[in-house]
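Running co-folding for acetyl coenzyme *A.
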Amino acid sequence: MNFILRGFGHYAPEKVLTNADLEKIVDTSDEWITSRTGIKERHIAADDECTSDMGYEAAQKALAQAGIKPEELTHIICGTFTPDSMIPSTACRIQEKLGIKGQMCLDVQAACSGYLYALQSARGYLCLEPDSKILVVTSEVVSRRMNWEDRATCVLFGDAAGATVMTSGDTADGPHVVDVMLAADGSLGDLLTVNGGGSAYSYKLGEAIGPEYFVEFKGREVFKHAVRNMTDMCESILERNGLTKADVNVLIPHQANLRIIDAVGRRFDIPEERIFTNIARYGNTSAASVPVALSEALETGFVNKGDLVLIPTFGGGFTWGSALIQF
Ligand code: ACO
């Protein structure tokens, strides 16, 4: 079966927070943030804007590009670690906003690897029901899970949403997913957490929330594991498909840190001009980062018909993965 990606869309909130703005909030500098991460600015959701609002905007664009009406959808799979609420799922909220009913709606939580986990789930559902039209949408309002007093984390993230529509079909119908590989190692989970709100933490009505409610991580450890696992997974997926580094036209990695991206590119022998990055303008948008990058890479002509695109991701869990998309 061919897993065709018929439409791409992305959305970012209007408000932009620059490094200069952050210098007024925490003890940091544009120089520190830029040299350590490559980030210059990030988008921040409006107070009344939530994950499903942004997912809905990205979904509308992907559906329009695919030429598929919302009511034709059969499944909605939403990747996010910042859902609107515990219940209902954000996928259900996006369905409601699209004005449709009846589809299977499911949230997938794999932190920054959320898009590839959602994409692989979509491939599974498509195998079960080949006539499916599946919306894969990832959306994150990470800013609401930021401790704005912690300079080590709050400078790194931003809010955004990305969406794709997948159907079966002929490879001439559009880009297709060649393969996806996923992995996780729960024993390293405590290196990157958002513990608050989960059942392992007991809260009482009226109790103040603590730092555990926000993203916390051991930056250097995350960095090390990210580079190693993203690189290994790239090698594995190429080997499994009988391909080599030379067959890859473009690398579109999860946008966590420019130095992680550079390190993966170097270890993988991919020159800078074949690596798509938008981290300077978005920061790390977690599960949204890959579909936003894919959508922008297409829009700007960075990726063209005939290109083989390699996508490595890494996130909390730890979770990681790689994908090959033939444009
Ligand atoms: N501004 C100025 N100084 C800062 C800031 C800041 N914003 N943040 C930390 N520092 C200071 C620290 O206090 C520390 O100071 P000290 O040495 O006096 O104690 C020092 O800078 C730390 O500097 P480095 O060790 O050189 O920082 P490093 O090079 O490790 O970079 C960073 C830190 C950017 C966090 C890096 O480790 C990283 O990117 N890690 C990966 C994070 C990541 O990818 N997360 C993605 C997954 S998220 C998800 O899945 C939801």
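Result summary
The mean pLDDT is 97.
The longest helix spans residues 219-240.
Job closed.
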